[in-house]
Amino acid sequence: MKIFILSAMLSSAVAAPPPEPARQQALRNLLKHDCGACHGLTLKGGLGPGLRPADLADKSNEFLTATILRGRPGTAMPPWNRFIDKSEAAWLVEILKNPQP
Ligand code: HEC
């Protein structure tokens, strides 16, 4: 039962629709102001590493989504799962890898 729920959650995250437009705007603001505080306003890195497409290209979406949700214990990267859910974190990874002009 537990395993079934887990796999249902995993597959729904993959197929999850993008957040509503207002929520997308809120997430973009979060990215700029909160994430930007460490990763740089233009995401080219600061205290945290750069988050531009070339920086992330060789890392899987699953790995990066998990990093955003859980943070990296022992580093300055905090967990964000109290503020954003899994599909929102996956969407953030998507726009980091494929920024829109
Ligand atoms: C307090 C500083 C800080 C804030 C705020 C922060 N990060 Fe980080 N982040 C870090 C650090 C430091 C690392 C590198 C951790 C390590 O050494 O592995 C990191 C790593 C990452 C990585 C993995 C990058 C890679 O190349 O593996 C991603 C993705 C990421 N952060 C996204 C975000 C997002 C999205 C936000 C905002 C919701 C955010 N971070 C906010 C400090 C921060």
Key features of this structure:
58% helix; 5 helices; 101 residues; Cytochrome Bc1 Complex, Chain D, domain 2; mainly alpha; globular; binds heme C
Contiguous uncertain segments of 5+ residues: none
Q: How large is the radius of gyration?
A: 14 Å
Q: What structural class do helix, strand and pairing data support? A: mainly alpha
Tally of separate helices = 5
- Secondary-structure element pattern, one letter each: HHHHH
What ligand molecules are bound, each kind once? Answer: heme C
CATH class membership:
Mainly Alpha
Between the first and last Cα atoms, what is the distance in angstroms? Answer: 44 Å
CATH superfamily: Cytochrome c-like domain
Task: Give a description of the structure.
By secondary structure, the chain is mostly helical. It has one domain (21-97): Cytochrome Bc1 Complex, Chain D, domain 2 (Orthogonal Bundle), CATH 1.10.760. It has helices at residues 2-15, 21-39, 53-56, 61-70, 86-97. α4 (61-70) packs across α5. It is globular and about 30 Å long. The termini are far apart. 14% of the residues are buried. The model has no long low-confidence stretch (mean pLDDT 90). The structure holds heme C. Residues 30-31, 34-35, 37-39, 47-49, 51, 55-56, 59, 64, 67-68, 72, 75-78, 80, 92 line the site of heme C. Heme C is lined by residues 30-31, 34-35, 37-39, 47-49, 51, 55-56, 59, 64, 67-68, 72, 75-78, 80, 92.
